[in-house]
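ugh ok fine here u go
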Amino acid sequence: MPSDPHADARVDVEDAATGPASALRAAGLRVTGQRVAVLASLVDARDAAQHLSAAQVAAAARSRTEGISTQAVYDCLDALTDAGLVRRIEPAGRPALFEARVGDNHHHLVCRDCGYTVDVDCTHGAAPCLTPDVDHGFVVDEAEVVFWGRCAACAATPSSTGRSPGGPAGAAPRARRQLAPAQARTRH
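structure:
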């Protein structure tokens, strides 16, 4: 029995050269160097408990293979997401994030100050762990929950948002850069 309860949901990367390639084949995808680089980057991020933006995936993939364009990274992310090898999460007011932890029932905690995102296992087990009171004829197969708050590092400092924690509507605004006087006059 594996010691990691999510081992069955992870890409097998015992052999870094064949793990992602095997996962691509098993998902019915053509194996390309770009897809392997993107998937391996996300598996490394998962193992480091990180969620990556598309730009971060691109940087990590470029360290593995030369010449991968930004568009190719997006195409790979779309294909991997459609195949169920990667999950895309979209916290309100934040860029989309990608992760290789798939096939289990987990949710996310997002720091409204710095954007730090961590996985949280669902306490109810089976998906969907939440069901609506009225389903309006939908066959519900997933519930996505995002918990918002401040991470330990941000909670240790005064809030930069001036707001108390709330839901997605209370997500921290992006830091505004100071406009030079000329820019401030031309901006509407």
